[in-house]
């Protein structure tokens, strides 16, 4: 789809983040597919924003009631904004498996082996000291020659040092593998999630607020990027260390088991009790963060309107309300962490006290054993504390992976490219046939087009008119398969649009939408984002779009910066840039979706004249609010409630004084 313009003016800070991500993807792949995906995503995001404006009040009401439903009701069909889901129960194992797959299974195994080797070496190092002290020659140093004593000492010391160095190397290996793999896995999750979002159908954007997407791509990705690797590393090291310490204790002083086993049981019970609440708090905290992002982005994009209506304080209050709701769960999660910290440390101290009392009371256990038991109990308590905290933090972090992975499994739009490809020069003529075409925006909603049946000849210019909500824009969305048919089909030059890939379909139809979208880049990049055309061709397009003089007068000409969303240009000029873009990417079918609604009469005239001259051979479908722009068209299609009620030459329609078109023309003062 050649998007000549779009809602860039409306897509500001919030949407720019998405577009920046899209940009990142473009830089990475530099492919047409990605560009088209990003453009369609931008269009969709824009459409979603418009719908959300409508629902702002509704969502505010629900927020002010502090409704914090965390699950989707059973029947969400047709519901506009779906509530954000918070999973329940333990984190699905498949989430972790997916993450390990993203890290690479061989690399993960190697990393864990390196850590196990480090711990093995550590255990052996402990035993090495025992061998050393137990050595008969060392024990009876007086029996041997001083030189031999020194040699033996160096032998033990050398091996001890070697074990230390090997531990350093294995730990370094673990760190290196873990961190490089983590970076890869996070990148993978981010890119796959983003790809899925960009390939999601319109209904996803209709039902998902931008803030929710932003939340996952900022906070959740940040947790996976930063906190999760740190916790994972600490937990693996401490877990292995704990295991190693327990092994050493079992081998050296089996008596300590009397303390260690009950202690492990108590800790496991604590973890089992604490983790579900910690995990759920984290989930709800994440879910309640999205409305903050949402409100913030809407406030920024509507700042001028909010100020002009003197509603600044109302919006600030609303922001605080949402922040408070989120803080409740954030605070509760943190307090929970504090509680578990105090609890396990107190428990550890109690265990130490019990061991000390046991030593004082018992008469048949020697002092050395009690001393050892105390030392090991102390070591284990420290390791357990770290492990318990690590496990709970890990569970909380895994919630972020879970949330991001949800976006990796979104149902996509139809195939981008299909095996059944249309001829390269399709559509050769530009005939369009609607066969009993019906469509709706989502399952559970009413049909917005119900039984469109018509044939549009090649080269015909058709004006599409109708009252607000009649289904005019839906018709253009149907042509691009942004919404899919519920019944019937659209056939373009003998090919049913649903039988070919979206990419092939969308690139063969040109649209000049109502809102001009420009990117913060040079004039040249805005006209030819993929660098397919020569400067001469671009200047020619600018000339046809009546922008040549303007571009010539710029110091850097084609390389002049247009500013954020084309801010350096007037709306009319932006529209002309979009027209020039349309002229460069000319196809046999042109859609004009109220393309001149935002420009003055003079620019409107310029655009109309250029379109008539440059697209003389093409089939043109033009949605028009200003009826005068389509009065000279071949035929007028009048839509009402999703059906064609009149379809004839303008003069014929004007003869029917009871017809809708006549009434509209009368209202517009044209008859
Ligand atoms: N994203 C959407 N989700 C659900 N319903 C939608 C969506 N967009 C439009 N509709 C509904 O589809 C119907 C037709 O809308 P459409 O935008 O096609 O009308 P239109 O004739 O282009 O109106 P206008 O002249 O105001 O642009 C309306 O009832 C509208 O509420």
TrEMBL record:
What are the protein's UniProt keywords? ATP-binding, Membrane, Nucleotide-binding, Repeat, Transmembrane, Transmembrane helix, Transport
The terms under GO molecular function for this entry are: ABC-type transporter activity; ATP binding; ATP hydrolysis activity
- This protein's record includes keyword Nucleotide-binding: yes
* Locations listed in the record: Endomembrane system
Among InterPro entries, the record links this protein to: AAA+_ATPase (IPR003593), ABC1_TM_dom (IPR011527), ABC1_TM_sf (IPR036640), ABC_transporter-like_ATP-bd (IPR003439), ABC_transporter_C-like (IPR050173), P-loop_NTPase (IPR027417)
Q: Which residues cross the membrane?
A: 154-179, 234-251, 257-275, 339-361, 373-391
Kindly give the membrane topology term recorded for this protein.
Multi-pass membrane protein
List, alphabetically, the SUPFAM superfamilies matched.
Answer: ABC transporter transmembrane region, P-loop containing nucleoside triphosphate hydrolases
Segments forming domain ABC transmembrane type-1: 109-396
> Residue limits of the ABC transporter domain?
432-666
What Pfam family is a match, any one? ABC_tran
Q: Could you state one GO cellular component term attached to this entry?
A: endomembrane system
Q: Which family does it belong to?
A: Belongs to the ABC transporter superfamily. ABCC family. Conjugate transporter (TC 3.A.1.208) subfamily.
- Which PANTHER family would you find in this protein's record? ATP-BINDING CASSETTE SUB-FAMILY C, FI20190P1
- The identity of this protein, by name, is ATP-binding cassette, subfamily C (CFTR/MRP), member 3
